[in-house]
Amino acid sequence: MKKIFLLFGFITFATLLTEAQVTGNERIGEKIRSLEIGYLTKQLQLTPQEAEKFWPVFNQYRKETRAIMLDEKLTDQLEIDQKLLDVRKKYKKNFTAILGADRAQEVYDSEDRFKALVRKEMNRRIKARQERKNN
Fold first, then answer.
1. 58 near 46, Cβ under 8 Å?
2. How many structural domains is the chain composed of?
3. How far is CA 49 from the centre of its chain?
C-alpha cells in the first residue's frame, strides 16, 4: 500500500513538474538573476548613485551577451568567443566611466566567479538528485 501511495505521489509530482517546467525555469532564472544582482552589488561595493548608473548599462551588456549565446547561426566556438570578447571590450569603457578602471575589471571577474558558483551549485544539486534517485 505504501508503494502505491509513493508511486501515485511520484506520478503526480512528475506531471506537475512537466506542466510547470517553463514557469519553473523562468522562476529559476529570476532567482539566479536576483542572486547575481546581490552578488555583484556586494563585490563591486556599489553606492546607490553608482548602482543607478551601473545596472542599466550592465543589463544592456547582459542582453547583448545573451543574444550571442542564443544565436543559432553561430556554430563556431571561436566566433562566439570573439563576439563575446568584442562586447566585453565595448562595455568595459562604459563600466570604467561609471566605476573606474579597477572596478570595471572587477565586473568581469565577479561575473565569472558568480557563474562558477552557479555551475558548482547546479552540479551539486544534480549529483544529489541522482544519488537520491539511485537509492
1. no
2. 1
3. 25
